[in-house]
Write a structure and sequence with these properties.
The structure is a homodimer. Chain A is an alpha/beta fold. Chain A folds into three domains: 14-57, 434 Repressor (Amino-terminal Domain), CATH 1.10.260; 69-167 and 301-327, Response regulator (Rossmann fold, 3-Layer(aba) Sandwich); 169-298, Response regulator (Rossmann fold, 3-Layer(aba) Sandwich). Chain A is built from twelve helices and twelve strands. Chain A has helices spanning 14-21, 25-32, 40-52, 59-66, 84-94, 111-123, 169-182, 198-213, 229-242, 254-266, 284-287, 301-316, and strands at residues 71-76, 101-106, 128-132, 150-153, 163-167, 188-192, 223-224, 248-251, 276-280, 295-298, 323-327, 330-332. A six-stranded parallel β-sheet of chain A has the order 2-1-3-4-5-11, sandwiched between helices. A six-stranded mixed β-sheet of chain A has the order 7-6-8-9-10-12, with helices on both faces. In chain A, helix 8 (198-213) links the parallel strand 6 and strand 7. Chain A is elongated, with a radius of gyration of 27 Å. Chain A starts with 13 loop residues before the first helix and ends in a 5-residue tail after the last strand. Chains A and B meet through helix 4, helix 5, strand 2 and helix 6 of A and helix 4, helix 5, strand 2 and helix 6 of B. Chain A binds a DNA duplex through residues 13-15, 23-30, 33, 35-39, 42, 57-58, 60-67.
Chain lengths: 337, 337
DNA sequence: AGACTTATCGAAATCGATTTCGAAGACGGT
DNA sequence: ACCGTCTTCGAAATCGATTTCGATAAGTCT
């Protein structure tokens, strides 16, 4: 019953289909790709046989012809995946989940390794590259890309002419402060990361400015420290000593917020009744584990990934975008405010 | 001075190098690949010119010839990256960081999507596939892989003949219990995840068995619940009521351990003086943020990824491995025990 | 019937790198 | 001087799918 399947070695090639259908490989190709000069009867027969044989065209042969590999590289310094995973998921959506493959490369923060990975991606003829990092500091642009489209996601390029997609951190900080102001809070403190981190500096500056516009000051002054719970606990202890009647704390990260809330609880302050707390990052595992769950700023990193991928596709299709695209943040309100 | 670089359109091909060197493409190929029938003088000249032109052989042409794409798919249901990222990093190491590319595919837990992703990977002629999930429950094997090498990492296949690499959870649980016993603890409780989760069941069974071997019982009985801090807090409150003189809690996850430690502190018990706590997962961000830092079991997921990749490479080289490989866990001792 | 259009198909070239195999030249030995 | 050997190189085939273009057959029109 079963036909001899034409030399059963290896995967099915177009010539196998052609042989089984009694036509040439050219006709099979035209039938499968909807070209016009094939009769309806032949087309149907070819389609049926191709389906029965589970024929899958060899992507590499096509790529060799077209010069497009239908794959992009994702070069990231974020080994933990905190920022690279959302970028990747967003990009995957935009790239048609399978249409264009994402090749993941972790540089482990080693420039030499990054150069090697880039070399490998070029060798592999990727159609474009998304560069990602866990810092919002601008990073040195890739060198030696030889005209290949590159989009920087989350961590922008130092060259403003490059195509970068970043989070709107000032907007995020403003959303948080305005939310607290709307809730009637007047004595708002700010605990954040290291002063030298761009993210910390920007969020602090924006917070200070927005409060001044409301005729207020950062209660207790901006507290720079580390992105850790430990620092959150310590900072809130200091704050409660220096300005005991604060009624809100805006934190530079969810981890800090966690420490702050622990500190407040241990000091006998209730959240949100006595003190409201707002975080930054919307790191679900942190924000939903606090007591009560944490109101926080979400930078929409998946959207950044999606837009980066869209811009990359545009650049691949010869309509490159230059400059920086800013993605608005969003406030996720839970019970801590 | 600069030679005309032979029709400056697009990337450098081997024929461009051949033209510039005044030899044939065949000779260039042999020179670059260290074949023997090229004179030393010619080889050096070709090498110099290829370097000057920054020639990079087209990987797709080679793949078309050899039938190998030098890429593998990583098909995962773990969108959060908690388990897929370490697997990916380990695999990247084993795959020579760039030699073999990793194509990341997230199935979003949707079987239909998984089938599409698989189809795309096959179409792309990947040399093999690593399947990953966030559960340790056995999962249905991939169907329609047509002889392509597949290795299941962390989340094994239901078919015991498939090649799976999993964590040694019983070993992990034993390490934790023995560590507590060595520390002189006698009244050891166990708080873990949902009873229907394989991981929870295995860890509980192993814990019970190991304690019995020491002539002890699980203090207060195994407490099944959820993988959350909330559950950890609640469970420890119950435990302190039911068996107030417990001196250790082994937790099924680091998140539970966090809740347990918070509960203990609020009940006035000190860790580790009054009660020792051991977690499971070594999720750094959790384990290092507790007070004091958490002793916990590390399943060596990166090693699982590395071994999975090695087995996959073996299978690609026609020496397939069948059956399940178990990777030992390791105890990371911090200050909570 | 002869000229012309249209529909349908296949042979061959193409993409870029590699490999096989034959050709040509250099050289040594008798 | 002639034959054989060894070295060095290049023409051509190969991988698989697509596309161009020419060939053939069928049908249409005067």
């Amino acid at each position: 019953m079963a036909p001899p399947e034409a030399g059963s070695t290896g995967p099915i090639k177009i010539s196998d289909v052609a042989l089984a259908a009694g036509v040439s490989a050219a006709t099979v190709s035209k039938a499968l790709n909807g070209r016009s000069d094939v009769s309806a009867a032949t087309r149907e027969r070819v389609l049926a046989i191709a389906a029965r044989l589970q024929f899958r065209p060899n992507a590499m042969a096509g790529s060799l012809r077209t010069g497009r590999s239908f794959s992009v590289g994702l070069l990231t310094t974020d080994s933990f995946g905190r920022f690279s995973i959302p970028v990747m998921l967003g990009a995957e959506d935009a790239l048609g989940s399978g249409e264009v493959a994402i090749i993941f490369c972790d540089t482990r923060d080693d420039p030499e390794r990054e150069a090697r990975q880039l070399e490998a991606l070029l060798h592999r003829q990727v159609d474009g590259i998304i560069v990602n990092g866990r810092r919002t500091e601008a990073r040195p642009p890739l060198i030696g890309t030889r005209g290949l489209p590159v989009v920087y996601a989350f961590s922008p390029s130092q060259d403003p002419a490059d195509c970068s997609v970043i989070a709107d951190e000032p907007n995020g900080a403003r959303l948080a402060v305005e939310h607290l102001l709307t809730g009637g809070r007047k004595r708002i403190a700010h605990v954040t990361g290291p002063r030298r981190h761009r993210s910390a500096a920007i969020r602090a500056t924006t917070t200070t400015a927005r409060l001044r516009r409301a005729g207020l000051r950062v209660d207790g002054g901006v507290r720079f420290g580390a992105w850790t719970e430990e620092w959150g606990r310590q900072a809130v202890a200091d704050l409660l000593r220096d300005s005991p009647d604060l009624d809100a704390v805006f934190c530079g990260s969810d981890q800090i917020a966690r420490g702050v809330m622990d500190g407040l609880r241990e000091a006998g302050r209730s959240v949100p009744d006595d003190v409201a707390v707002v975080g930054f990052d919307n790191w679900e595992v942190m924000a939903t584990a606090t007591r009560p769950p944490l109101t926080t700023v979400d930078m929409n990193i998946d959207v950044i990934g999606r837009i980066a991928a869209q811009l990359l596709l545009g650049a691949i299709d010869r309509s490159p975008t230059s400059g920086t695209t800013v993605v608005p943040a969003r406030l996720v309100v839970r019970q801590s405010s």
